[in-house]
């Protein structure tokens, strides 16, 4: 039986984007288990309703809404919900897309634009638009969900890998700017996590074996392997940690 999560986030309000399944859902669940009020979001209302229902039945304080992070009006509604809930202390930017499995220079221009629009530009805009609320918090937190691919690109995720490298730079630059406001900015770089998103890398036994050959712990990660680290970054335990990219990848190589 696993230990009960700590209660480090009581009284905090969090937004987690793309949080109705996979890593995002696990993060939302963990933050709520630690006492935060969590606002979840997704592009599809059905997914939002199902996730809110599941977490509410666990006794967790959650609410949700549709949010396509590339749409200004959706982001505005997201922060309005936070404002009406009492403010914002924690922003977890998790939304990402990869519409095309291709090497970086084989990627179509349309896929490149979509990848950078969602994975980088929307992350930047979410952080920028969250600032009025985060500056009112005693301990604001911005956490970008990047990827091990930002350090060690995957051939079939070429443009996606580059977009995740860009998040490392955004993390470093924003951390310096926001330090005087006592807002920390960090990134988490998951390795190969068992989700729908990673199916392209593990769809066959041979592909899975090739991936696992790079992982010293010799297993795929789970969404809950990531959620605990995010909860730590969101808490007072990480008050003196900013501008860092934390790799959670079972020992995979991680160097630019």
TrEMBL record:
Keywords: Oxidoreductase. It holds the Pfam family adh_short_C2. InterPro entries: NAD(P)-bd_dom_sf (IPR036291), Sc_DH/Rdtase_CS (IPR020904), SDR_fam (IPR002347). Belongs to the short-chain dehydrogenases/reductases (SDR) family. This is Dehydrogenase/reductase SDR family member 4. The lineage of its organism: Eukaryota, Metazoa, Ecdysozoa, Arthropoda, Hexapoda.
């Amino acid at each position: 039986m696993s230990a009960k999560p700590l209660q480090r986030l009581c009284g905090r309000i969090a937004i987690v984007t793309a949080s109705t399944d996979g890593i995002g859902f696990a993060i939302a669940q963990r933050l709520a288990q630690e006492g935060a009020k969590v606002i979840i979001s997704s592009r599809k209302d059905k997914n939002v309703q199902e996730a809110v229902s599941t977490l509410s039945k666990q006794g967790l304080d959650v609410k949700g809404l549709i949010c396509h992070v590339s749409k200004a009006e959706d982001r505005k509604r997201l922060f309005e919900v936070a404002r009406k809930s009492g403010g914002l202390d924690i922003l977890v930017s998790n939304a990402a897309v990869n519409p095309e499995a291709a090497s970086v220079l084989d990627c179509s221009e349309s896929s490149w634009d979509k990848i950078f629009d969602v994975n980088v530009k929307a992350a930047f805009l979410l952080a920028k638009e969250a600032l009025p609320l985060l500056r009112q918090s005693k301990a604001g937190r911005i956490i970008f969900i990047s990827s091990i691919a930002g350090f060690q690109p995957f051939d079939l995720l070429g443009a996606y890998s580059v977009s995740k490298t860009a998040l490392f730079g955004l993390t470093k630059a924003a951390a310096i700017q926001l330090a005087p406001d006592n807002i920390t900015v960090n990134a988490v770089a998951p390795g190969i996590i068992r989700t729908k998103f990673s199916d392209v890398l593990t769809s066959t036994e041979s592909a899975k074996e090739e991936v696992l050959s790079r992982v010293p712990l010799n297993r795929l990660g789970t969404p809950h392997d990531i959620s605990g680290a995010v909860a730590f970054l969101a808490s007072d335990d990480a008050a003196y940690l900013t501008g860092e990219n934390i790799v959670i990848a079972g020992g995979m190589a991680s160097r630019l």
